[in-house]
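Sorry, explain these tokens?

***
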Amino acid sequence: MKIAFTICTNSFLSLARVVGKSLKAHNPDYEFFIGLCDKRELDLATWYDGFNVIPCDEAGIDNLMEMAIHYGVSDIKNALKPFYLEYFARKYPQAEHILFIDPDMVIYEKLDEITRLHQQGDILLFPHLLQPQPFDGKTPNEISYLATGTYNLGLISVTVNENTLRFITWWRDRLQHYSYVDWKAGLFYDQKWIILAPVFFDKVVVVKHPGYNVGYWNLMERSIARINNKVMVNNHYGLAIYHYSNVNIPGNKLFTDQQDRYQDSEFPLLVELFQEYRKDLVTEGYETTKKKVCYYANMHENHYRQLARSTTKGKIKLWIKDNFPKSVKNKLRKALSGFMSE
């Protein structure tokens, strides 16, 4: 038995359904779960149907409410990864391995490399880059990943044993309090902690197969082509997992302002795959689910609004937030930085 899961809010249910269906299409030996970082909603029953959906308040997560208040929705989704790993490891100790997959991914072939590498290691990590990048004035570059982390935590796979349970416990305890961005402190969500994993734990394997975790950050080193009706990476490796990170689905743009290296017109095959992805998202309920507001995001927002109303500075911040577009907000924050600093 192999376990795979993703984590999403109700607004990302269509993405979770697409990645789950793509996984099962090529890997029927996996049991797939959706970890819902949200509350179930009755009008979404159609989009829960056919999937094993486990809301986070049903996964035995201690201090969940405190975490929800402490974190914004993007932070808590990242922070919950080791909590769900622990949940599945305890519930399915017989599992060969447990694979986390970001909801904005698509699986394009059988994941044989993961099975093979687990014969060597307990913890599989997937780096952003496999080769050095030139300093050509474009981003992202190597400095980007010194800041955000060597490994992309859109993927991580673990076996179930004493070594990995110690790893999960260590990661869980850190993310309970420190899964957010603080550049000065060296924090970037869940990713920066994993730099320490190969030092602290045994049998950690870095996955260097170029067909896994392909995304905008590593296309410089990975050419994509269709050969004999199969999508290949660097001519020799099947495309296993593409990470549709930071795409603009409503705007129909594959590449956005997260990078300045590429234009859609340079990658016709990737654009073709992206168009198929967008169609699949619509089929899986994108237009309905994208409108949903996360229960825990509301809880976080309401808590901090209540705190803000207790001070003059807080009231001013709320007034700016509620009455100005983002571009104006940033200028006002800069102009008032001395007064508004915490």
